[in-house]
Design goal:
The chain has a five-stranded mixed sheet, sandwiched between helices. Strands 5, 6, 7, 10 and 12 form a five-stranded mixed sheet that branches. The chain has 16 helices and 14 strands. The chain is α/β, with parallel strands linked by helices and 427 residues long. The longest helix has 16 residues. The relative contact order is 0.11. The structure holds ligand LR7 and manganese (II) ion. The site of manganese (II) ion has 4 residues, from loops.
Length: 427
């Protein structure tokens, strides 16, 4: 198979050509695929998907995107013998236009030999044909759940069916940008314990405009386990001489990443007792760092994602209950004494049931993972934020190191600034 790959590299590093596409799409019948569930005049274009369905349908499935990378990214070279990946995309009632654009952008902007397959996991969507019809496209396979499972168990199902040694996860409303994949595969090849994420560009939910996101961000969270982007501190930005360098991140947003398959398996995949949506990104992030891996954002890889304001789908157990169950499992298994902060930020979680966590606790023990305190001290950090102003307590002392100038000041939060890191020791 090594020889085959070498051949593939020599013969075709290109993706599918326009002419080949015309043939494929004729066979696939893109128009009839889209027409079957088109927005109809008079309907609220937001009602089904919580984004502008009408606008999405006006945009071609192969639209051009602005290359949003730093110009220096274009001068980088990647290993020509990267191995291929299985791309897993789970979805529940995704709009056909966005699902197709996700798949087509992947096929258009990825060297063919790097795509082992694209596995679509249809999480019991109303119309099985949303998924099935797409298998007429090259490399695309479809697995359909018999019941609604949620994205966590669906991803595990996709991962277990994967034929490649590297897994790539994407949401079902993405558009990958130029050269998005090689930088991610390269990092994971260099260090198979590294979990690599792209910079996530913004596809506007009203206009579908593709907007560059800042590449000076990393993932963060508050004690109620809500994800947020945080600005890299001035310190960290100054240290980053090279804008193409990976950014270590305490947390990943969750949906878009590349991971070595054996590492994913050895680390315990996901907590499959988590339902529907939410919390799994904290769980996998804590687990990766605490159990010997790392999380990085790779600035030279860009993928757009449709960000929206609410969920278009139903949570059978209720949105809040599900989020609490999933985050509570995370807190109980991974956060040690710091789970107390979680419970004080989310008092409603205290009485809620969260199922059996023995298996996950055993996993943590058998992997000999480090403590949550170690994670906070080394990979994340705590700060004190003033609720009304959202400013942070800052210490000037730590800046000049002079004992006599112990001074507390209030300044804009820069969560990774060491002058804003505080500890509340448990005693
Ligand atoms: O029951 C479900 N079954 C599914 O298969 C519910 C959802 N899904 C699918 C869904 O169709 C989509 O493809 O799961 C994917 C994620 O759901 P979204 O797009 O409704 O959620 P999101 O984009 O708000 O979710 C972010 O956080 C989630 C926490 O569980 C997941 O980790 C998502 O993958 C994640 N998305 C991203 O990281 C993209 C960047 C967003 C940010 C920040
Ligand atoms: Mn999403």
């Amino acid at each position: 198979s090594a020889a085959v790959e070498v051949n593939a590299v020599c013969v075709t590093v290109a993706s599918i050509s326009d002419a080949e596409w015309d043939d494929l799409l004729e066979e696939f019948e893109e128009k009839s695929y889209l027409n079957a569930h088109r927005w109809k005049p008079g309907q609220d274009p937001y009602s089904l998907y919580a984004f502008n369905q009408r606008e999405s349908e006006r945009i071609p499935s192969n639209r051009a995107l602005r290359d949003t990378r730093h110009y220096r990214c274009t001068t980088l070279h990647y290993d020509p013998y990267l191995s291929s990946t299985t791309i897993v995309i789970t979805f529940h009632n995704e709009a056909r236009s966005t699902l197709l654009r996700t798949v087509r952008s992947v096929l258009n902007r990825t060297p063919v030999h790097l795509i082992y397959e694209i596995i679509l996991v249809d999480d019991f969507s109303e119309d099985p044909n949303d998924c099935l019809l797409l298998t007429k496209l090259p490399k695309v396979k479809c697995l359909r759940n018999k019941h609604r499972e949620g994205l966590i168990r669906s991803r595990v199902r996709g991962a277990e069916a994967a034929g490649a040694g590297i897994l790539t996860f994407l949401d079902s409303h993405c558009e990958v940008n130029k050269d998005w994949l090689p930088p991610l595969l390269q990092r994971v090849k260099e260090d198979p314990t590294c979990v690599a994420s792209p910079v996530i560009d913004i596809i506007n939910m009203d206009t579908f405009a593709y907007v560059a996101a800042s590449s000076d961000l990393r993932g963060g969270f508050d004690w109620s386990l809500h994800f947020k982007w945080e600005q890299l501190s001035a310190e960290k930005r100054a240290k980053r001489a090279d804008p193409t360098e990976p950014i270590k991140t305490p947390i990943i947003a969750g949906g878009l990443f590349v991971i070595d398959r054996s590492w994913f398996n050895r680390l315990g995949k996901y907590d499959t007792a988590m339902d529907i949506w939410g919390g799994e990104n904290f769980e996998i992030s804590f687990r990766v760092w605490m159990c010997g891996g790392s999380l990085e954002i790779i600035p030279c890889s860009r993928v757009g994602h449709v960000f929206r304001k609410k969920h278009p789908y139903i949570f059978p157990e209720g949105n809040a209950n599900t989020y609490i169950k999933n985050t509570r499992r995370t807190a109980e298994v991974w956060m040690d004494e710091f789970k107390l902060f979680y419970y004080s930020a989310r008092p409603a979680a205290r009485g809620k049931s969260y199922g059996d966590i023995h298996g996950r606790q055993e996993l943590r023990k058998s992997l000999k993972c480090k403590s949550f305190k170690w994670y906070l001290d080394n990979k994340s950090g705590t700060h004190l934020e003033h609720l009304a102003s959202r400013f942070c307590v800052d210490s000037e002392m730590a800046l000049d190191g002079i004992e006599s100038s112990k001074m507390l000041v209030i300044s804009p939060c820069e969560l990774s600034a060491h002058t804003q890191r505080w500890e509340m020791p448990f005693s």
